[in-house]
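As a warm-up, study this chain.
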Amino acid sequence: MIKFSKIASILSLCLLISGLVLSLPLSLNAASLDNPLGNNNLAPQQLYGRIIYAFMGVTGTVALLMFVIGGFQWMTAAGNSEKVKKGRDTLMWAVFGLVVIFSSYAILRTILETLRF
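Now compare it with the structure written out below.
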């Protein structure tokens, strides 16, 4: 009998080859890619704003992931007090991280609006 690892490696190789073949027509149009930051005439304030908004999106995603992990730890603790504490601590630190990130954003925005950047 063929082992599962051999079947998995053959399947992954087939997926890789089909992905390369299917992406070939897309790579021919690579010269017409748009600038992900928009136009090239961005003021530094607009660039900083876009970077900050992207960072906020990443932190929101990480916080959601930490909430899911903490909730999973807590719900699968099965009465074990150490695992319950670990899940609760994960949730508390995720909330604390969100508070720090959003308060720093609010402070930074207030300072930049005051200085008219």
